[in-house]
Design goal:
- The chain has 10 helices and 18 strands.
- A hairpin with a 2-residue loop joins strand 11 (259-262) and strand 12 (265-268).
- Helix content is 31%, strand content 24%.
- The longest helix has 22 residues, at 54-75.
- Helix 7 (186-200) packs antiparallel against helix 8 (292-305).
- It has a domain at 76-173: T-fold, CATH 1.10.3980.
- The structure holds adenosine monophosphate (AMP) and magnesium ion.
- Magnesium ion binds at residues 1, 184-185, 253, 296-297, 299-300.
Length: 348
């Protein structure tokens, strides 16, 4: 997910570091691995690389972070100047040109929305704001029933965004309850753009890790980049590892990323569009694939659908779901890629 927030405090760094440590790069072999870190899109982003000099790597990583920052500025719902907020302010009931990265990202978001049967819904903005998950501190109790129902009646979670090409690409929001919110796809898109920037700067072997949204380029010396999938309830515990092939991405959505507890329950930021409430079929969902953008959107969709959503992914997007009882479910293609480590979670 994407977290839009103020510049990091030291505490924020400490919170994010353990997740980043799940990129299992630093083993005791002879390969020289360069690392650069920056706080971007509300999360600590780490770029590691091999087979490149220290100085060219620093420059390449700087270009990648710059690209991610500019995407954050365009896609944040919290800044009145962002392209996303400008569209939301004008796009209800009339055609408005999509600007900047929205022209590429919105059509890709809509195709996952269609393919996932609306489990990924890129215009839940008003519901996300109602639940208070845009930025911490989170509210500590769910919104009134009536407010949720009101937004659902105003079309908050129905497919609501139409596109047309009139010279430029234009969009129109068809329901007053819907506003664009690309939080479920933007970080993956930023990871892909970061990888492209690294390539342009001559870096062929790298791992980008944006708080758990990862994509690999090339290899880590003699072997592939190896990453860990975390335990949904034990932050530092790796339940399985996967070796990423050249260009592959792995993205995870979890109910522990943004949540509060009330009435004895966990209320988190991953909404089920059919209910307008936090989805109740999973603790965690991960999707492997050729691009972080689509893996990101699908990990959100898979979280919402739970294990029954694995089939919708197809063989090209291996998926893993940890259900609410802590049991793992994996698609056949994912099963072949997992090196299972956990004794607590039943292997799929
Ligand atoms: P992620 O952690 O990538 O799965 O994204 C979570 C973010 O996506 C939330 O903070 C919301 O902004 C947004 N979101 C929540 N539920 C959905 C959904 N069902 N479809 C698309 N975006 C969602
Ligand atoms: Mg996502």
């Amino acid at each position: 997910m994407i977290r839009f927030s103020a510049p990091p405090s030291e505490k924020a760094y400490r919170l994010v570091l353990p997740i980043v440590a799940l990129a299992l790069g630093a083993c005791q072999d002879q390969v020289e691995v360069h690392n650069e870190r920056a706080f971007v899109m509300g999360t600590l982003v780490e770029i590691s690389a091999t087979g490149v000099g220290a100085e060219p790597f620093r420059e390449a990583a700087g270009a990648a972070f710059l690209e991610m920052r500019s995407l954050h500025d365009a896609l944040t719902p919290l800044d009145g100047e962002s392209e996303l907020v400008r569209f939301n302010a004008r796009g209800h009931g009339r055609w408005v040109a999509l600007e900047g990265p929205l022209t590429e990202l919105v059509p890709r978001a809509l195709s996952v929305q269609r393919a996932s049967d609306n489990a990924f819904n890129p215009h839940l903005g008003r519901l996300v704001a109602l639940w208070g998950f845009r930025e911490p501190p989170f509210p500590g109790r769910p919104p009134p029933e009536k407010a949720i129902r009101g937004l659902l009646e105003a079309g908050a979670s129905q497919p609501a965004l139409a596109l047309r090409r009139e010279g430029s690409l234009e969009g129109r929001l068809e329901h007053p309850g819907a506003t664009l919110d690309l939080g479920g796809i933007a970080k993956g898109f930023a990871v892909d753009r970061a990888v492209a920037a690294l390539r342009e700067h001559g870096v062929d072997n790298a791992l980008v890790n944006a708080g758990g949204d990862m994509r690999a380029l090339g290899r880590r010396g003699e072997r592939p980049w190896r990453i860990g999938i975390r335990h949904p309830r034990r932050e530092h515990h790796v339940i399985a590892t996967v070796e990423l092939r050249n260009g592959e991405a792995m993205v995870t959505s979890g109910d522990y990323e943004r949540f509060f507890r009330a009435e004895g329950k966990r209320f988190h930021h991953l909404l089920d569009p059919t209910t307008g409430r936090p989805a109740r079929r999973a603790q965690q969902a991960s999707v492997l694939g050729p691009r972080a953008t689509e893996s990101d959107a699908w990990s959100t969709a898979l979280f919402s659908k739970g294990s029954q959503g694995l089939e919708a992914l197809g063989p090209g997007l291996p998926g893993l779901v940890i259900d609410t009882s802590g049991k793992a479910h994996a698609s056949p293609t994912m099963r072949r890629r997992l090196h299972w480590r956990s004794e607590e979670i039943l292997a799929p």
